[in-house]
């Protein structure tokens, strides 16, 4: 039995997979089992932010594996303390809770917002407004938070206490705001929803009503955070600091992590016994994540991400078939005039480039550290696929 048959026989069929068995990688390049080379513009869906097997990251992780691979949160350990301090200091937040995924980071944010409101206002102020077309994760609560009907199937009953505001519609925001709302949760750039950046005036209005009504603003930066847009967090483009920001994906550089960051107002809401995670803040994962943040802190790193973004966008702008390029930084959505994203993805793959799709768009989330050679090579394959006649 080959690897694909073995996987399909024994793993639940929840993914429509590419017929590629990836064996190993270095930088933004990986190889399949037959030695075929691929430039990877997907980074494991925005996860391998430093590319495959970054030397500094891999050394820190391997050293930690041999020193102290796991210790429960009933004890202290150095990598977790270091990561927490660095993340809070770089982001301007007061405290963090570590978990293992984006969905879990959002679960934490939802619990935190509801408890903040319960502690101050009692039981009946627990509604969270999210946006139509959002994506917040696959657990029952984060699916409930996700503002897409397609996700609200099969698994009834969903969690109550969510309502959905049309993105960029200030009138709809005000219509849905009532005395039971305790939080508003947004992605600055809707990722799975089609790489759609919110309008600054809409974000500013959310921040304003949250301040006026003591509602917590939650920014889900699971996909947009940790340098992906050329800033540590995408909120910086909006000159906006949410009360709670969640991160995951790229923070671990390839190992599972979630982080829920809280400002001073709500940093101590989740007290002893209110929340927990067996693996959250694991020493190995934290040792790697510290290296991700150290790299982002280096002079010129965020700027280089913005430069790479500009190169991608300028290259795509020259193609007749490209209707629109959306997103910010190295979070890129490409709408095509006549071709289907899935067809372009297939041509790219056959020619040695891995890309993603989001709704009807091609989506690129290349490693933040991608070299200019890899970027140029990948863009050549992409442009050729977009221009091709098949
Ligand atoms: C904005 C956003 N939030 C949450 C999630 C869920 O993250 P995870 O799959 O790590 O649970 C994702 C995943 O794509 C995401 O893009």
Spans of at least 5 consecutive residues with low confidence: none
Please summarize the sheet with the most strands. 7 strands, mixed
Mean pLDDT: 98
Strand arrangement within the widest β-sheet reads: 4-12-11-10-7-5-6
The set of bound ligands, ions and cofactors reads:
pyridoxal-5'-phosphate
Strand and helix map with partners:
Elements: H1 3-10, E1 22-26, E2 29-32, E3 37-40, H2 43-46, H3 55-67, H4 78-91, E4 95-99, H5 102-121, E5 127-131, H6 140-145, E6 162-165, H7 170-176, E7 181-186, E8 189-190, E9 196-197, H8 200-213, E10 216-220, E11 244-247, E12 258-262, H9 283-297, H10 301-317, E13 322-326, E14 332-336, H11 341-350, E15 353-354, E16 356-358, E17 361-364, H12 372-387
Parallel strand pairs: 3-15, 5-6, 5-7, 7-10, 10-11
Antiparallel strand pairs: 1-2, 2-3, 4-12, 8-9, 11-12, 13-14, 14-17, 16-17
Helix pairs in contact: 3-9, 4-9, 10-12, 11-12
Bound molecules: pyridoxal-5'-phosphate.
Pyridoxal-5'-phosphate is lined by residues 101-103, 106, 135-137, 187, 191-192, 220, 222-223, 248.
